[in-house]
Recover the amino acids of this structure.
């Protein structure tokens, strides 16, 4: 069996560029996430536009200086969670981890990025945030109701004390 079959079976996207920044390999999951496969002639400075990589929550292409693959070509291993791909009418938030790949002499010959679709994670974070806000509102309402009940209890206690004094005065 070919090693490529293992990479294609991987549930994460794998995207590799060569030392010149040209796309070299992408597995099936990367093709699914990016909406296209390897375009070997694509220049490094156009990868964000070609693959529609945007800064999360904006219509701005992902900053080239922060691009994980470019950082990996410069020798840095990095991870970002503020990158999303716009393709096929949908927005796919990604966690991208990139690392340099060196030859035996220590020269960087490739940069590898692992792409993870984090839509479910984001939806879960949003759901958790909504639940926290709901709990906060409920807690505030309970505190207000508790304060109101305390005031009513004090008023009733005052009336009870007054009735007891009246009853003691008559006995």
């Amino acid at each position: 069996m070919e090693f490529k079959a293992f990479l294609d079976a991987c549930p994460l996207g794998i995207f590799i560029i060569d030392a010149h920044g040209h796309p070299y390999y992408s597995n099936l999951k990367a093709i699914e996430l990016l909406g296209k496969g390897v375009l070997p002639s694509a220049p490094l400075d156009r990868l964000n536009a070609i693959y529609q990589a945007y800064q999360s929550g904006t219509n701005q292409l992902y900053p080239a200086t922060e691009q994980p693959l470019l950082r990996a070509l410069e020798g840095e291993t990095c991870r970002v969670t503020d990158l999303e791909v716009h393709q096929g009418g949908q927005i796919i938030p990604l966690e991208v981890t990139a690392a340099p790949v060196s030859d035996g002499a220590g020269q960087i010959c490739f940069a590898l990025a692992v792409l993870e679709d984090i839509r479910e994670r984001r939806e879960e974070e949003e759901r958790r945030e909504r639940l926290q806000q709901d709990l906060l509102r409920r807690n505030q309402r309970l505190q207000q109701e508790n304060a109101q009940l305390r005031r009513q209890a004090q008023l009733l206690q005052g009336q009870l004390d007054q009735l007891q004094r009246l009853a003691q005065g008559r006995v």
